[in-house]
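Researcher: Go.
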Amino acid sequence: MARISTPPLPQGSEPEPLRPDLARLADLLLAHAPYDGTFELRLPGVHVSRASRAHAAFHHAVQRPALCLVAQGAKRVMLGQELYEYDASRVLVYSVDVPVSAQVTQASLDAPYLGLRIDLDPARIADLTARVYPLGLPRRGEGRAICVDQLDAPVINAVVRLMELASRPDEAELLAPLVLDEILIRLLRSPLGPRVALIGQEESQLHRVAKAVSWVRTHFDQPLDVERLATLVHMSPSSFHQHFKAVTAMSPLQYQKAIRLQEARRLMLLTRLDAGTAGRRVGYQSPSQFAREYGRYFGNAPTKDVARLREQAEGLGAGE
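Model: Structure:
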């Protein structure tokens, strides 16, 4: 496992200029997250998460392009075999839909983990990029689908004002789009700006990989023809493999496998399908192959894994 970012800072060691805004943001997030879980706000594409204890294990999900901040606590995310850690001093940006494993690493009843996710719209980023970089983007490698950097005061200040609008629906309808644009502009003007801008650039390799990712997510239950997929995004097979792995940290087949296994887990957990049916539903012809790959990915056989998740959910419900 490769650790990509620096280790999280100790609680309370955020840069001094950020502390008042972070404290205010924590109060605002608490108002919208009365108990542990993830909450979608009335503001389109804005989500608040709360956790009163550190996670004992990683939680799996497919994450779409988004800006993620932490007002309190810390979290780490695994993409392939690479580990990214962030806290209240950093922002994390997803540039492409990727299957990840996430774990809250710092949280308590007195100081719960409080996170904010703002989904990123490629079309809006493209429009704002043209205004922020009228002479063209600085040349920079496209890099992974996840990037982490230091949080700066202008971004967090704008995020606080967005969350203040969340409690005033009459004003939010008029002003929230303007503040969201400000957040994106300040993000584009930050050190992460050139990487974020690529999300909206149709001619970029990142955008081509994103198009391929979208196809795999839509057709995950079908056999994957990598050469055909490369042709779809106007790349040679060798170039496609190279750029796909450079962005997602996995090959197209590994990516499809992760999507299939996460979807099978969701089906078993939410619709109570048995393992054999769930495996077939996501494209596996062999039950033994499905069980074997599921065990490698999630660390346990399908039936035992789902039973454990249900027990955890029932335990949390009893404690609320």
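Model: Residues 90 and 149 are 5 Å apart (CA to CA).
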